[in-house]
From TrEMBL:
<feature type="binding site">
    <location>
        <position position="74"/>
    </location>
    <ligand>
        <name>Ca(2+) 1</name>
    </ligand>
</feature>
<comment type="similarity">
    <text>Belongs to the peroxidase family. Classical plant (class III) peroxidase subfamily.</text>
</comment>
<feature type="disulfide bond">
    <location>
        <begin position="124"/>
        <end position="323"/>
    </location>
</feature>
<keyword id="KW-0408">Iron</keyword>
<feature type="signal peptide">
    <location>
        <begin position="1"/>
        <end position="29"/>
    </location>
</feature>
<dbReference type="GO" id="GO:0042744">
    <property type="term" value="P:hydrogen peroxide catabolic process"/>
</dbReference>
<dbReference type="InterPro" id="IPR010255">
    <property type="entry name" value="Haem_peroxidase_sf"/>
</dbReference>
<dbReference type="GO" id="GO:0006950">
    <property type="term" value="P:response to stress"/>
</dbReference>
<keyword id="KW-1015">Disulfide bond</keyword>
<dbReference type="InterPro" id="IPR033905">
    <property type="entry name" value="Secretory_peroxidase"/>
</dbReference>
<feature type="binding site">
    <location>
        <position position="80"/>
    </location>
    <ligand>
        <name>Ca(2+) 1</name>
    </ligand>
</feature>
<dbReference type="Pfam" id="PF00141">
    <property type="entry name" value="peroxidase"/>
</dbReference>
<dbReference type="InterPro" id="IPR019793">
    <property type="entry name" value="Peroxidases_heam-ligand_BS"/>
</dbReference>
<keyword id="KW-0732">Signal</keyword>
<feature type="binding site">
    <location>
        <position position="78"/>
    </location>
    <ligand>
        <name>Ca(2+) 1</name>
    </ligand>
</feature>
<keyword id="KW-0964">Secreted</keyword>
<feature type="binding site" description="axial binding residue">
    <location>
        <position position="194"/>
    </location>
    <ligand>
        <name>heme b</name>
    </ligand>
</feature>
Length: 327
């Protein structure tokens, strides 16, 4: 019990420190409490919407983390991922990499509730960020303050979508993150979002059956895990849509165990496993898996930093009335 109280105190301290950091050092001018005067109940409304969904669907956590990442990583955190395609435009959500993104209905529900309380005040981009904050806390991660003040973009094109894939080298993935203003350490930390959620056999079955054309399994994967996964993901293209937990240890909790799994050669996606073996990232992976892991505070900092990518502020963009279409 004493240890639990200690961790709780640490989380409250983290909340205070992050709040102060965001108020005084927001890299894009976003700030905690942006809606205090214009829509004082906005954050509470979003939190209640997320809590209601989480009670009946714990898988909403990885869904929202993925939605947040896929939105911010394309043209910035402007909710352009939420816009529907039209006969004249194929929007981001219809790009191949986004076809399995979900959670749009939760964002729509939160937006509708906020609009009822404060019409035209709160952006869809901020609702995504706040909802992501909330599901992290609900899934065992820390509570923290999320800066707000983003505005919604008016452009969404499937052709803009170029997200880093699960088989990239560490060097290529690092370049993709660097292009968004993120560091290699940010990348390793943000991939820790794979502490929750699933992937499908089609994204890694080559590691089980024919790694790099060898006709054998990937030697960097634990042999017992290979045997287990072969029963889930049969050879010759059968069952490629079957789900597999990305974290084989604590798949529903936001924690550092994901990194321990990588050190045990139990990473499912090739890029994830490479974090533990590539000379550029192996030490960072060991640090995040260690007994004094900074994962909690570093994950919060990386999520906030991602939420600052190429945001629209002031009079740029708009505040959408409905998240799925431009005003």
């Amino acid at each position: 019990m004493a240890a639990q109280r200690g961790r709780g105190g640490a989380f409250h301290l983290l909340l205070l420190l992050v709040s102060l950091m965001c108020v005084f050092h927001g890299t894009q001018g976003l700030r905690v409490g942006f809606y205090t005067n214009t829509c004082p109940n906005a954050e509470t409304i979003v939190t209640q919407t997320v809590q209601n969904r989480f009670r009946r669907d714990k898988t909403i956590t990885p869904a929202l983390l993925r939605l947040f990442f896929h939105d911010c990583f394309v043209v910035g955190c402007d909710a352009s991922l939420l816009i529907n395609s039209t006969p004249k435009n194929s929007a981001e959500k219809d790009a191949g990499a986004n076809l399995t993104v979900r959670g749009y209905d939760l964002i729509d529900a939160a937006k509708a509730a906020v609009e009822k309380a404060c019409p035209g005040k709160v952006s869809c981009a901020d609702i995504i960020a706040l909802a992501t904050r909330d599901v992290i806390a609900l899934s065992g991660g820390p509570k923290f303050a999320m800066p707000t003040g983003r505005r919604d973009g008016r452009v969404s094109k499937a052709s803009n979508v170029n997200l880093p894939g699960p088989s990239l080298s560490v060097a290529d993935a690092t370049r993709a993150f660097t292009a968004q203003g993120m560091t290699q350490n940010d990348m390793v930390t943000l991939l820790g979002a794979h502490t929750v959620g699933i992937t499908h056999c089609s994204f890694f079955d080559d590691r089980l059956w024919n790694f790099q054309g060898t006709g054998r399994a990937d030697p960097s994967m634990d042999a017992n895990l290979v045997k287990q996964l072969k029963s889930v993901c049969p050879q010759r293209g059968v069952g490629l849509g079957r789900p597999v937990n990305l974290d084989q240890g604590t798949p529903n909790i936001v924690d550092k165990v994901f990194y321990s799994q990588l050190l045990a050669k139990k990473g499912i996606l090739q890029l994830d496993q490479r974090l533990a073996t590539d000379r550029a990232t192996s030490q960072r992976t060991r640090t995040l898996a260690g007994p004094t892991s900074p994962f909690t505070k570093d994950f919060v900092a990386a999520i906030i930093k991602l939420g600052n990518v190429k945001v629209l502020e002031g009079t740029k963009g708009e505040i959408r009335k409905i998240c799925s279409r431009i005003n």
